Amino acid sequence: MAIESIALVGDFSPGSLEQSYQRAFELIGVRTHTFDTGQFRHELSWVLRNRLAHRLTIQSNVIRERASRTFNRCLEKAVLQTGVAELLIIKGEFVMGETLHNLRKKGVRVACYYPDNPFPPNPSQRPETLVAARETDLYLIWSERLVGALRKTGVRNPVFLPFAWDSEVFPYQDSRPQGSWPGVLFLGTWEKSREEFLEELAGSVPLRIYGSHYWGTRTKARGRVRSCWQGHALHLAEAARMIRESAISLNLLRDQHVIDGAPDGLIMRHFEVPGAGGFLLSTRGGGATTLFPERETGEYFTGLSECVEKAKSYIANELARRKLAEAAHAMVVSQHQYTDRARQILRLLGECR
Predict the structure, then answer these.
(1) At what angle do helices 192-201 and 304-316 cross, to 10 degrees?
(2) Would you kindly state where each structural domain of the chain is located, as residue ranges?
(3) pLDDT of residue 42
(4) Which is more confidently placed, 319 or 262?
(5) Which of 155, 184, 263, 343 has a beta carbon 3.0–4.6 Å from 150's, enabling a disulfide?
(6) 27 DSSP 8-state letter
(7) Regarding the domain delimited by 5-163+338-351, which CATH topology (the fold level of the hierarchy) does it fall under?
């Protein structure tokens, strides 16, 4: 029997993964019932709404469970009132395992997509994350290696599912020439390891950095990175335009993407850059080189020296760069849009029956 409707739980802010999935399900003819966790936050205890108190209690599962009890009861009731048989949670902060257990007992098949690393000591991990994961029918994750790690912790059905491209969020910039600015673009959050890498890279190639104010406050005052920071972050169509206009978009995987000592998995940038029509130079890692073969749809590096060498080469070689960017875009269009992922999720949920 085809799935005709699905409930979605998460943060539906502009450009969010939740919105991408909502659009995707609607485009393939599946009705969605959305529950924005932001609308339920007033049901959280002040302990979780107060920034200082939250920081002090962020590792206490007991406190978080008690302080989010009303939040979870309201969410559970709201989902059951829709009458849907399928639920997809994106990340699921404050959503407790007991709530998922109760929903499953009442006939709701529960899937969760976790966009970060669910294991400690990663900063996005919360005490309820793995507890709730064990109460799902389907747990979707962006890394093959994390699938194995989740299974070892008792998660019954972890499945590798990459991110994808949403043309509404990062529209294809076909009216603009690829690489009209001959330099390297980095879009992303500040991390010390990223700063150190980009500080060295900036000594060899033109570099522009767009991101939060941390790039202006946590970096060396007289360092090259500080001068490369453009003073703000870029989002949505504005980011897509800059991706297209830059010769190279650099993808530096974060510490949370290092699994068992090596980079693994795919992040949103792997799909957003080719979706927008840009050329991606990325950290070499498992998963990415399988979906986007090296020297066929993009380029990869292991270490600074290889990154510098390839950045210089592709800045100078416009024809090769554009050929790879076009091949990557065609692959994303044909195989890696959120409508493709939505169909996969429906198929996987159907197999859980």
Answers:
(1) 50
(2) 5-163+338-351, 181-335
(3) 80
(4) 319
(5) 155
(6) H
(7) Rossmann fold (3.40.50)
Do 111 and 132 meet the contact criterion of CB atoms below 8 Å apart?
no
Yes or no: say if 262 and 285 are a contact pair by the CB < 8 Å rule. yes
Residue 184 pLDDT exceeds 90: yes
pLDDT of 353 above 80: no
Q: What is the pLDDT of residue 195?
A: 97
Report the pLDDT value the prediction gives residue 83, as an integer from 0 to 100.
96
Which span out of 48-52, 95-99, 124-128, 256-260 was modeled with the highest average pLDDT? Answer: 95-99
Please check whether residue 7 is in contact with residue 18, taking contact to mean a CB–CB distance below 8 angstroms: no
In CATH, the number for domain 181-335 is 3.40.50.2000
Q: Do domains 5-163+338-351 and 181-335 have the same CATH topology?
A: yes
Instruction: Calculate mean pLDDT across residues 308-324.
Output: 97
pLDDT for position 214: 96
- CA–CA separation, 96 and 277 (whole Å): 40
d(CA 240, CA 220): 28
**How many helices and strands (H and E) does the chain possess?**
17, 13
Helices (H), 128-191: 128-133, 144-152
E-strand spans in the chain?
Answer: 5-10, 31-36, 86-90, 109-114, 138-141, 158-160, 181-187, 207-210, 246-251, 258-259, 262-263, 280-283, 299-301
Q: What is the mean pLDDT of the chain?
A: 94
Shortest CA distance to 185 belongs to which of 216, 237, 229?
Answer: 229
The amino acid at 289 = T
Residue 97 buriedness (CB in 10 A; 0-12 / 13-18 / 19+) = buried
Place of tokens 């005052």: 221
- Give percent of the chain above pLDDT 90: 85
